[in-house]
Amino acid sequence: MKAIHKASIAAAAVAATILGAYLYFLSSSRSPFDEFAGMRVGEGEVGIMFLGTSAFIIRTSRHAIIIDPAAKMSKDDASSLGTVDAILITHEHGDHFDASSTFDLHRANEAVVVVNEGAYASLEGLIRGEGKLVLLEPGEAAETGGVVVKAIASNHSGLSPLMYFISMDGVAILHCSDSGFVPELADYAGEVDVAILPAGGASPTASPSQAFKMAEAVMPKIAIPMHGTSAEYGELRSALESLQGVQFLELEPLSPQVVPVPP
Fold first, then answer.
1. Quick check: 107 and 131 in contact, CB under 8 A?
2. Rg for the chain (alpha carbons), in Å?
3. C-alpha span between 38 and 134 (Å, rounded)
4. Rounded CA gap, 217 and 183, in Å?
5. Main-chain phi, psi angles of 228, to 5 degrees
6. In 3-state terms, what secondary structure has residue 128?
7. 58: alpha, beta or left, given left = phi > 0 and alpha = psi -120 to 50?
8. Which is it for strands 64-67 and 257-260: parallel, antiparallel or unpaired?
9. Model confidence pLDDT, tens digit, residues 203-248
10. Domain segments of the chain as ranges
11. For residue 69, which of 60, 78, 61 has the smallest C-alpha distance?
12. pTM of the model
C-alpha cells in the first residue's frame, strides 16, 4: 500500500510539472498583440503598446486605434486585436507609412484609415469602401464610431504632414508625429491627457528641446517619448522635471500595459 501511495504521489508530481510547463509554454508563446488584446482597460485608463519609431496601438474602454504602423504589424497581428476603429497615418515617410501594410491592416478588421495628403494617393486605389479612407487637412476633424480625430499641421517635410489630437471614451491623446514645435499646439493647453512626443532620432525637425516646448504648450498629464534614442529620452525626461503635474512615461517596445490617466 505504501508503495502504491508513493507511486501516486510521484505520478501527481509529474503531472503537475507537465501541466505547469504546458501553461508556461502557452503564456510565453503568446505574441505581444495577443497580450494587448487580452488586457482589460477600464474608464479613465489607456491600454498602450509602443511598436517603435512613432507606431502605437492604443485602447480605451470601448475603442482602439493604430497610429503610424509603417510595416511593423502583419495582418494577423491586426486580426488578433479584434475591433480597431481607425488607423491614423501622420505622413507618408517610410518609417511612418507603408501603403501595402496599411491596406493589409485595414482588411484585417475594416478599420477606417485617416491620412494626410501625402499618404492619400497611395491608398486611394486600394481602399474603396465608402467612408473607409478619410483625407484630413490641417484644422479638419473626422469622427468614426465614437473616435474624434483632429488634424494639426506638422512642422516637418512631406505633403501636408499632420499631428493628431484624438478623443475617445473621455481620454484625449496628442500624437506629434516627428514634428517640431508649432504655436498652434497652445490651442490644446490643458486638454491633453496623454501626449506622445518625438524626441529626435533621424528626424530633422524633432528634438528633446522641441518636444519640451510641445509639452510646455499643452501641459499633458502624461508625456510619452517616441522617435528618438535613449539619450534623447533621458534629456527630455530631465527637462520635463520642471513642469509640475507632467508625468514622464517611457515605454519599452512591444510591452503592452494599462496606464491610469490622472484625474
1. no
2. 21
3. 29
4. 8
5. -170, 180
6. coil
7. beta
8. unpaired
9. 999 999 999 999 999 999 999 999 999 999 999 999 999 999 999 9
10. 1-30, 40-251
11. 78
12. 0.88
